[in-house]
Amino acid sequence: MMPNGQFPSGQGISASSLKRRSAVLEFLGNVWSNRKGKAGALIFIAMILIAVLGRIFSPYSPYDTSFGIYLPPSAAHLLGTNYVGEDVMSEFLYGTGVSLMVGFIVAIAAMAIGTLVGITAGYMGSVTDDVLMRLVDILLVIPGFPLLVILSAYLPPTIWSTILILSVLSWPFNSRIIRSQTLSLKRRSFVLASRLSGLSSFRIIIRDLIPNVLPIIFINSIFIVVGAIVAQAGLAFFGLGNINSINWGTMLYWFETEDAIIFKAWWWLLPPGFGIMALGIGANLLSNAVSETSSRIRRY
């Protein structure tokens, strides 16, 4: 402490940073201590481990077509083979990484844009709020999936084109939710105290607002991950995007295109379907846990 009774500016910034870190750790601890949250988190962790380690421990190359076609599950091929003799387990392990990559990149991009627009509109108000929310309104009234199909048909058929389209279409709804929460938060005493102390709008947003919309950001990010994976799978099922890429969507696409159901090749359908279902269950468990525990997050 300095002679005049004030802390040096560096210590003040450090204390603020420690408070924000404490709020984040408390939030994550509350979610993990909840049984639903732990179960949901373990599902996501398991899927991430499959995505990261799948290529390393894959029994065969997913492009190896030297095996018999439509072989049922056996010791040599735990999930059988597909219509060209590729090992389905190797396909699933490889495709999980691609599908999760799409989901997480879209979630990060969409939540970054949505959080920036929502907090800026809610905190700044006035003309800034009107302009940003009118833009959001325009994007929200446009039918999402038909637009997604149209854009996918005209853009280059790559995974990155799909990620770009999904990112652009996923943020408007979340920005409205975050804006509503920001409108409530900016009237709280801790935000008013920060404004009276002369802190800049940027520091108030970073220090006071973002930590307190963290549960909303967390929940929305989870559902964007799952929604992006389902949307990408839907596009691939309709033959849009890069159908030569190995992911859950293209596995479903080729299963349907090659009439695998006639050959009763259920082992080809179950892995991607199970992966999507598991992530959906995990997302619901995590969102319920966040809703149950978010009231215990400290307000700064």
Short description:
This protein has twelve helices and no strands. With 300 residues, it is mainly alpha-helical.
Q: Please describe the biggest sheet, giving its number of strands, its sense, and whether it closes into a barrel.
A: none
Number of domains: 1
What name goes with the CATH superfamily?
Answer: MetI-like
- In total, the number of strands is 0
* CATH class category name: Mainly Alpha
Derived from helix and strand composition plus strand pairing, the structural class reads mainly alpha
- Mean pLDDT, all residues: 83
Give the amount of beta strand, in percent: under 5%
Label the overall shape.
elongated
Unreliable sequence segments? 1-14
Describe the protein's architecture and organization.
The chain has 300 residues and is mainly α. The chain is elongated, with a radius of gyration of 23 Å. α2 (35-57) crosses α3 (88-124), α4 (126-141) runs antiparallel to α7 (172-185) and α11 runs antiparallel to α12. It is built from 12 helices and no strands. The two termini are 23 Å apart.
Q: Secondary-structure blueprint of this entry?
A:
Blueprint: H1 9-33, H2 35-57, H3 88-124, H4 126-141, H5 144-154, H6 159-170, H7 172-185, H8 189-196, H9 201-209, H10 214-237, H11 248-257, H12 266-293
Name its key features.
single chain; 300 residues; mainly alpha; MetI-like fold; elongated
